[in-house]
């Protein structure tokens, strides 16, 4: 009689133990996943070698896009936020989704700024363009472009306020050539990067690093060297 009663008690205990183990395993995996969840938005590489900052007036609803091409022909833009050693930290779309938490309440963040960071440098020419992706007003939009080289000490390579004149307007802010630690030949000779991203160039956004058709860029002509 006693032995028969002991059996269900043991079953309840083992069922409880089994469920507790399941719960602990579940919590372990959840916490592990949370630890590994990357904070993609707004990430700045602490080892950045160069920073390009593009800013337009606070609270302006226009969407400006930053395009940067490295000497290898990689192009970083909102649809290809990582290319070569460059990373677009944030695609600012004017007022769209611009909120910050203040005292646990969502308030509008007036800032309009995009940042591209280089975690390494390559010799050769870089091209920095700004594009008026969406214009809401008729007046030209002032856009400030700042290019800084961070090591061994902060050096402002370029700083200028340019104007964008309506949806689709693309302006070459600066082109510069790196040779070791030296920055040479800063110009603003126009060169479209938007066109290259739309015609299947290396920065076309079809997977990491773009497709395989791009190649070495000739620093003199700015053209892709056919292999
Ligand atoms: Ca943008
Ligand atoms: Ca904004």
Key features of this structure:
36% strand; alpha+beta; disordered C terminus; binds calcium ion; 227 residues; 6-stranded antiparallel sheet; 5-stranded antiparallel sheet
Detailed description of the structure:
With 227 residues, this protein is an alpha+beta fold. The chain folds into 2 domains: 1-32; 50-198, Sandwich (Lipoxygenase-1). It has 2 helices and 13 strands. The protein has a 6-stranded antiparallel sheet, with no helix packed on it. A 5-stranded antiparallel sheet has the order 3-2-9-12-13, with no helix packed on it. Strands 6-7 form a two-stranded antiparallel ribbon. A hairpin with a 5-residue loop joins strand 2 and strand 3. Residues 36-40 and 203-227 have low confidence and may be disordered. The structure holds calcium ion (2 copies). Residues 92, 94-95, 98, 111-112 line the site of one calcium ion.
> Helical element count?
2
- The share of residues in extended strands comes to 35-45%
Q: Please identify, by name, the CATH architecture of the largest domain.
A: Sandwich
- Which range best describes the helical content: under 10%, 10-25%, 25-40%, 40-55%, 55-70% or over 70%? 10-25%
- CATH-derived topology of the largest domain: Lipoxygenase-1
Succession of helices and strands: HEEEEEEEEEEEEEH
Number of strands: 13
**Rg estimate, integer Å:** 26 Å
The largest beta-sheet arranges its strands as 4-5-8-1-10-11
Keywords: Membrane, Transmembrane, Transmembrane helix
Transmembrane segments: 12-35
Organism: Flavimaricola marinus
Biased composition (Gly residues): 200-213
